[in-house]
Design a protein that fits this description.
globular, 19% strand, 458 residues, Aldehyde Dehydrogenase, Chain A, domain 2, seven-stranded parallel beta sheet, alpha/beta, five-stranded parallel beta sheet
Amino acid sequence: MDEQAMSRAYIKGYIERARKAQAQFETMTQEQVDLAVKTIGKVVYENAEFLAEIAVEETGMGNVPDKIAKNKQKAGIVWNNLRGKKSRGVLETNEETGITTIAKPMGVVAAITPCTNPIVTPMSNAMFALKCGNAIIITPHHKALKCSTKTVDMINEELEKLGYPAHLIQILDQQSRENTRTLISSADVVIATGGAGMVNAAYSSGRPALGVGAGNVQCIIDEGYDYKEAVPKIVTGRTYDYGIICSGEQSVICPEQDFESIMEEFEKNGGYVVRKPEELEGIRQALFADGKPNRHSVGQSPEKIAQLAGIQLPEGTKIIVAVADGTGLTDPLGGEKMAPVISAYKYKDLAEGVNIARENLEKEGKGHSVAFHSDSEEHIEYVGTQLCVSRFVINQVSASSAGGSYFNGLAPTNTLGCGSWGHNSISENLDYKHLMNVSRIARYMPNNHVPTEEELWG
């Protein structure tokens, strides 16, 4: 039997088990569905420390304290957003239009999950899938097979105790590109969270697909804004889990008159500012190889980055601030950096600052997110209308708020759609509603007003 035939047989078993489980689960009440969803989040929340430790041990990326915080925060905010929301049966009847909407499952969800978020992405995708009565099959990154599998196993143990159908949540135990291709062409809908290659494969699968684009969050400090308020948030976001979060701040774009003071504020908050050409080149070499992220630097500590770059850091350095030579169109430092390194720019007026952000986004990250620190609603609207991204987070830590937060209205998720700018089908955060089919009952409304020709065209 050739590789393709073996893969088809292997995946067929997963699909058949998922369809059987989904058919049973589809008959359950909203309360039963919600208990299953709550259980998924609760397992990750209650085992946050253990799951963080095994994720760092296996992937070699990020750090345990931040992953513990991420596991707890994401489990809590995703469940908080989903609880109490109707996702089964009749959703509502609109008396004005005569339309009744009815929620239906999509069927079997296939989810490609990354090594950068090997615990919370399978968790949230499973919560969204089950919320709408679907079964889900996860294909994890090969560098995170053990920790992602352990997460699913622990969730399934609890679901089994509660009497839910077996195989509602499955994870491939043989990770290969062939198996992933077969899975995503066999399921009913695909979620792809990871590199561009896998996202493109999902959109080419012949199935409806929900993917994400590259991150390269531009962070702008407005003229006159208290940079002492902004800098600690930016440092927190850029250093979070050693910089592997796609929503983490990547560039800080500062008013020229405050630039040196802002650099001093970074130093007060654990920053090491790099200006010398030879040190900047060392940082570039450490972060990038042949125009792609250097795998030896992804998710590593500032000390490791400095070692790769051949520079000395002061003790206690949290973040490396690289004063870039140009935007991403000419300097690689304007692109996405998968480590606790942020590029710094200065602008004469806000229009120039927005243009710096635009050029960096043209290099990478168009459609993703922008962080803006400002007290001016006029400036907030200006930035919002000028840049092509799906999310603008205002006066917040982007790394922990662009994916939803208790303190903003964005849907909590680990899969951030980037719209057509990022070659994605959605320009918002993936939520349970994206895994729901909706039927509409359309009633005859004889009393509706029919406009005359004069009213239409006059």
